[in-house]
């Protein structure tokens, strides 16, 4: 997993998706939270170097948990899907700052959160780190 590159904006201030480098894939991960429905939606898509979709997935999870824990679980779900697909070199892109900081750091405060982050690190190190 690489630290995110600076975002590219067009003249209207909109963010532009950037293709991965030659020979790599890009996995975009996002989540949305509904307090009314008491659930979270997790979505991911993987595209190749030409921007073609290789994999998409949407999951709904209940109940709604702590946001940081949900986002860590979303990363873990994405890593598992990528691990199963084994597409080769993958760049991950998401806006889960707390999760990214925890992934690269060594401390987190909530036990369940720490366990999920450790699972993410182990799965990533097993064969996704390139």
From TrEMBL:
Quote the InterPro entries the UniProt record gives.
RNase_H-like_EbsB-rel, RNaseH_domain
GO MF annotation list: nucleic acid binding; RNA-DNA hybrid ribonuclease activity
Every copy of the RNase H type-1 domain together lies at 28-124
Q: Name one Pfam family in it.
A: RVT_3
What protein name applies here? RNase H type-1 domain-containing protein
């Amino acid at each position: 997993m690489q630290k995110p590159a600076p975002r590219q904006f067009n003249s209207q201030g909109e963010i532009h998706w950037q293709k991965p480098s030659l020979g790599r894939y890009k996995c975009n991960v996002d989540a949305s939270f509904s307090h009314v429905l008491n659930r979270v939606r997790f979505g991911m898509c993987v595209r190749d170097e030409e921007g073609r979709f290789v994999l998409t997935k949407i999951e709904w999870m209940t109940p709604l948990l702590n946001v940081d824990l949900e986002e860590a679980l979303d990363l873990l779900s994405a890593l598992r899907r990528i691990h199963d697909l084994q597409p080769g070199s993958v760049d991950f892109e998401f806006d889960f700052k707390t999760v990214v900081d925890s992934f690269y750091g060594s401390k987190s405060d909530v036990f369940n959160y720490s366990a999920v982050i450790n699972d993410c690190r182990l799965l990533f190190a097993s064969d996704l780190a390139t």
